[in-house]
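Quick note —
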Amino acid sequence: MSKAEEIRAKLEAALAPSLLEVVDDSESHRGHSGFQEGGESHYNVRIRAEAFAGQSRIKRHRLVHSALGPELIGRIHALALDLDVP
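Predicted structure written out below.
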């Protein structure tokens, strides 16, 4: 299973999003710190979930990081998050 598939599965299970986009943006970071040949190092994630209602930006990010877990977070160099309610 790719990291993108892991990200998607964990976020769907934990947050039941109405919208979830996971984009491997690694190639656009070629030559930058953390780039890995073959990708799977830099991700853009867009989520719309009711779980974010009434939560601060920091709390929303913590919810996502908690859902992904330290093991998966440790294997990702960069994770850009766009989080909001539907």
